[in-house]
Amino acid sequence: MKRDPGAHSESRRWQDIRAKAIDATFDSDRRRVGERVALVFRWLFLIVLGALNNFNPNTGVEAKVTIDIVLGFWAVMNVAVQVLLVRGYRPGKQFSLSTMVLDIIFAAALVYLSEGFNSPFFLALFLGVITNAVRFGATASFLSALVISFIYLFIGGSFTPANFFVDPNATIGKMFLFLVVALVTGYMTRELERERRSAVERAAQADSLRELSMNLVGDTDIKDIFDVLVDHAVQMTSAQRGRVILSSQDGFVVVASATRDLGGPAPEEEPIDEHQASQAASTGEAVFGGDRKSLVIPIASSDGATALVSLAQAAGTFTNQDLFVVDALCGSSAVPIANALRYQRSRQEATTDSLTGLANVREFRRRLDAAFARPDRRNTPLALLLIDFDHFKSVNDELGHQHGDLVLQMGSRIVRSTVRSQDLVSRYGGDELAVMVPDTNGAGAQRLAYRIVDAVRAAAVSTTPDKSLTFSIGAASYPEDAFTASELIAAADQALYLAKREGKDRPCTFAQLVTELELADGNLVTMLAEAGPQVIVAVAHAVDHRSPLTQGHSSRIVAIVDAIGRRLGIVSGGLEDLRAAAFLHDVGHMTLAVNGNQFEAPGHEEEGAKIVAAADFASGIVEAIRHHHARWDGTGNSEWVSGDSIPGMARVLAVAERYEALTAGRGVARMVPADALAKVTEGSSSEFDPAVVDALGRSIRDGGLELNLPDIALPATAAAS
Fold first, then answer.
1. What's the predicted TM-score (pTM) here?
2. Cα(695)–Cα(564) distance, rounded to whole angstroms?
């Protein structure tokens, strides 16, 4: 799975919502605790103040009654608050403000109705100072102390310069006491607030760990796991950026990265602190940087690789709390990561050649087929290089297979270091490599081939005494040289044949081989006899190059006969012969002149059969080429063959030629596949074998046939075959 930035933002938004909800819950709990503390202190103050009032012999009866009435109303208020709290009421800010104001009013009334400065009831004012700290925090407690001091002086104390001088120390001391109590309780409350914030952070971290675990459960894609892990590590700490680094015997490699701004990638140019990473990997312990601006923590190890989380920041420093958080994060993800590392290892072994570390041939074919399955492949060039280690057999024979393996490894590294990071290098055979080069045409493939040849020459890898490693390279490209994956491999292989024939230690392109065949003249039979299947694709392209009307014709015929042959149940050996006949069916044109806009020269079937027979191809291929224009009903056939006496491969070629002409627009207006099939079906049992026509129809209907047609319709004057 791939990370979706939108999904990441949505996840972060829900995390923020949950954090706010947790914070709101804690805030509500704090106010509830504040009201409970106020409730206890209020009862305590009411009992003490009641005792002071009723057991003071210097207080008159009338004054005692007045104070008891105020204390009674205050007690009623306290009972009401207690009932609400017992029933589970969760007080809001307005409720706390109301109880705070009532406490101050009742306390001020007690001071005002008693002896002012000399009244022992000024103790009631401390209730507001203490409980406000619990309810609203240190700042609110200090401000309420200032307000209460003002009330005490100017309301309860009836402040004037005269009565101030009666006992200035006591007056100032009481005011100072209000502020001291506010500061002490505020400090205590601040510590409690800090603990509350820590609890909120721990709750959010626990939520993130839970989410991380959910994201990792069942996920074996190592890249996705690392992406999730490093993103959480950055968001849960004070880090500005983070990376996951894999440490192995091959060195260090960054496999995932994130920054605090929406999880974007960390700067690629930032170097890895290899000393710090090595220390963490070897000891299994977290390592802080010297200035504590970096932190590396090992996560898990498996199959010789250790995953590390590396965090960094520019402004602040990492704390032990950050270490604790990442430790918890890594601990919760260690098992999934270890499993993913093992899975990745097994998957890598299934797709990697164990000797060279390159992709194996199975992975190469999968990636090549995937490239040809892309919906935009018509607009996306693709090149293929086949590389052969020159004189490799002599290396094994003279110095042994161990030295041969070393040469293979060194040659593979040279190729890997020369190509681009997006190019796929694979071991294609015993001493052959294949390089799939996306978004590159024939000219680009040729330049890359020359760079590889130059690189291996410069490396001077010793093979046998007095000899160094050299490469022969064949290069081909889509869509210039081939229309299918199999045809592209064949084209590159035939270019490689040319490079070997020309003396090795060089690159050759498929286009060069085609040009040589076009100029072969009398040597064509000799080249076909010598190379056989190694040049048939190039021969077909050379035939198709004779006219703009024929570009890509043979490749399309091969695609059609392959689809028909599979529907007819022809086995693999028969399919190879059928494809060979399709590539060579028009080879007779190489020795015949084409007049004007005519697509085919009369007699090219017989001439082609002679050429192929002289080149020692199988008799079935020869007969297919001779009769590929024979009609099913026998009319117009020069050799009077008809029906089942027509070779089976020739019948397939006849249907393929007609369908290709209709869809390419040769001699007729270009038709869509359905209309072209309908037209071919009209000739069933007269021109064509009904079974072959039926197989063509099935291949079209089930989506098994897709052709690379010309970009424009061919001239209508061209004669259809």
1. 0.59
2. 5
